[in-house]
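Figure 2 data, in text form.
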Amino acid sequence: IVVVPTDAIRKMWEANNLQTVSWAQAKNCSALGDAVYKVRFGKRHEWSEQAEPIIEPVHPSFFFPVLDPSNVTEMKAAILAWEESENSINSGSSFSTNVSSDFCSSTNFPRYLRREVHVPGKVYQEVYLIDGDQLKQQSLESCPITREAALLGDLMAEVDTGYPGLLVFHVANESNIGEF
């Protein structure tokens, strides 16, 4: 049994602004039907001196569950996927900002599909160039939207999380037995 001091939980709650994040997620869940959280351990900002537990909201349109065929209420894996362009990166858009395909296609910047594949104990990062109706996988180090983070060691193709389960959590607005 691991005992976590109450003070540590309070600090994590406050650092992640979970009161406000949970309120916003509850509102989104009622409007969008789902809420999704992602947990990671890392530096919150570029200037942060040390890593910490980070709990982030994820827009449900980025969330693609992989269900267990013998128990459709259980996720075997979770895929987070979103579109980015070099322009969205240069303009300061972040992971949690939904970059619409209209925005990306209205520019002359190349468009990319980012995928984060969560399986128990691991997270895989992938990036694909969107070329018409084709996806062409890119290395993290050579892709303009991931190059800097990959070269700095902040973005790796495979991360061992040290946790035996998934670090993506889905909250359904309504759930019936046998439905996800």
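Caption note: The CA atoms of residues 38 and 168 lie 5 Å apart.
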